[in-house]
Design goal:
Blueprint lengths: L1 E5 L5 E8 L3 E7 L2 E7 L8 E7 L3 E2 L3 H8 L11 E13 L2 E10 L2 E16 L5 E12 L18 E15 L6
Antiparallel strand pairs: 1-4, 1-11, 2-3, 2-11, 3-6, 4-5, 5-7, 7-8, 8-9, 9-10, 10-11
Length: about 180
């Protein structure tokens, strides 16, 4: 079995949500970790785990970030991690995969399906084997108890329900220590 750990310096976890129905706000989780465990050379059937620190949410606005960390949204104090554990990782042809798993946000765990493109696997100049993945999906924030909302005088919703996830992840194969 091979273990591949996320390289956080070459990875990003991004989300996008509509604001006032007319524009999109982009945010990131700046602190995260995860791994992929594989049998053999293929990523088919791999076991994927991931977690992000809620306190690391960054939308380039301190007031908005504080609001997202509050009980109106993530409640970072009570639920400090967002977690994902795969249930299947299937090749759909060429470099495209379907990743299914259980996503936990706050106190809610739901199955999600994500689209994955394997960008390739290479050996870097330092002798490490690395693989890259682009991961995309959409979820309804209200299904995870991220229910806060407001309506403007004109009747526009302040925060959209649909959240787009976009992750660029580079993983490094871990070399077993010789005894």
């Amino acid at each position: 079995m091979a273990t591949w750990n996320i390289d956080p310096t070459h990875s990003e976890i991004q989300f996008k949500v509509k604001h006032l129905v007319i524009s999109t706000v982009t945010g990131y989780f700046r602190s995260f970790n995860g791994s992929i465990k594989t049998e053999g050379e293929s990523f088919e059937g791999a076991n994927v785990t991931f977690e992000a620190d809620i306190d690391s949410v960054d939308t380039n606005n301190d007031d908005r970030d504080a609001h997202l960390k509050s009980d109106d949204f993530f409640n970072a104090e009570k639920f400090p991690k967002m977690k994902f554990e795969s249930t299947s990782f299937k090749n759909k042809g060429d470099d495209d995969y379907e990743l299914k798993g259980n996503l936990t946000i706050r106190d809610v765990t739901k199955e999600v399906t994500l689209d994955v493109t394997h960008g390739g696997t290479v050996d870097d100049p330092y002798g490490q084997t690395k693989a890259g993945f682009e991961i995309n999906g959409t979820l309804n924030r209200k299904e995870f108890n991220l229910k806060w909302n407001a309506v403007t005088e004109a009747g526009n919703v302040v925060v959209g329900d649909k959240v787009k996830l976009h992750m660029n992840v580079q993983v490094v194969e871990q070399v077993a220590e010789e005894a």
